[in-house]
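Hi team, as promised in this morning's meeting, here are the two structures we talked about. I've kept the exact order from the run log so nobody has to guess. The first one is mostly here for context; it's the second one we should focus on when we meet again. Sequence first, then the predicted structure tokens.
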Amino acid sequence: MFKDFYAQRGEYIVISAEQASRFAKGVAGDYNPIHNPDARRFCVPGDLLFALILVKFGLSRQMEFRFTNMVSADTPLLFSEADNGELHVSDESGKCYLQVVRSGETTLDETAIEAFARCYVAFSGKNFPHYLKPLMEQHGVMFNPKRPLVIYDSMGFSLERLDGFNPNLALTRSSLDVQGKRADALLEFSIESAGDAVGVGSKKLVVSGLCHYDASEMAAIVDEFYRLKAAYEAA
């Protein structure tokens, strides 16, 4: 699963800029410029780290992910489990990029894991413009159009079961807590399988460098998003 998006080098996983960018666009539908291989502040999508955690350690009924640092391209990453059961993604110097707390039943079934990972990543990739633009417009704020910065802070979910799993995620509630030049966006979602409610979850994003909402500037950013999307799909 997802083996095309990383390379295994001994005990470490290495993700190139090209692999990370292909995952962002091709799997998540995420055209954030920060995931372009030539981006000055390039970073590996947090959703790729999320997917690889599930591949390596399985899908648990309760999981909490906290992203603590941004991962640069070609950083050797160690995926490990601590004595207390916490999962960590760290580099060779011990710098931690992702912490995961989990509990409850765990499945290693590849079909269930891939279905949930792809379903969540497709949902998560819609951060902008689908979820964030209406929130920012409602509150009269937006990120700096010349330097848009949206950071993946954390996410978590709770599942009632793991068997007979064909998940679908839907946004149930969204909110934006503005604090000066930054804001916390909370996206809450339901998880269904074959029409039955099987879980709930939420995702937190941090939007930095806030300024007053400018409809024309935002329209230009949205147009660029769809231009990049069309160009990728055409290629």
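And here is the second protein, the one for discussion:
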Amino acid sequence: MAGRDRARLIDQETELHISPDFLRRVARVAAAETLPRFRTQGVVDNKEAGGFDPVTEADQQAELAIRRLINEEFPDHGVLGEEHGSENLSSRHVWVIDPIDGTRAFISGLPVWGTLVGLTVDGEAVAGMMSQPFTGELFYADGSGSHYEGPGGPRQLATRKTVNLADAISFTTTPALFKGDMRKRYDSFESKVRLARYGTDCYAFAMLAAGSVDIVMDPGLKPYDIVALIPIIEQAGGVVTTFDGGPAESGGDILAAATPQLHEAAMAALRG
């Protein structure tokens, strides 16, 4: 039995149902902390000595609000968050939280950041949401498919059917993240696609699920950067793995594509 099918079966056996309403509630409590602080020139702290890894009060307070809601609804579940660490990771059910994915965009006033909350069952991502409250958008997957709510009305998400690199639109945060020989291989890959664009963090992955983008790749991601996005993309028809085809739940160098054929072509191009 395929891993994704197995995870869904496990979810059914435990009679766990993650309702869209719960994901909406998560999005609302996070937005109550992030939106009032967006474009306000608030204090920005740096988590990285010798570099720049920003964190704001909005990150910290939004994660606390999300954790409180999860603990109230699912007190036996574990939680892994970017800002406030982990609890009960021995649970079969673990929520993975990035309160603001794209803090650099957040502090720059750009509405391409998002709140990411995903659920793993026995280590496999089965449900997740990405909320962009400034634009009023919610992308989520709950096992019934991948869905969108926002301007233009609700709809089910589906990736494009692109199979050739020459027809693909690709995104990465910045080519500067590709180091050494990998930068040469990335540059070669980029020369093969129709259009390459940069930035937008989690929003690019959401656009892949929505059928606007064909490939998104980013090296060096953490679990909280990608877990929520895996089911959104997969349940829309896409593929998400590491660069070498492994599971993406633990983070690492992540490649997402609209179709299995395009994913294979992108992996081959990255191998050089």
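Starting points for discussion:
The two ends are 32 Å apart (CA to CA).
Confidence is low (pLDDT under 50) at residues 6-15.
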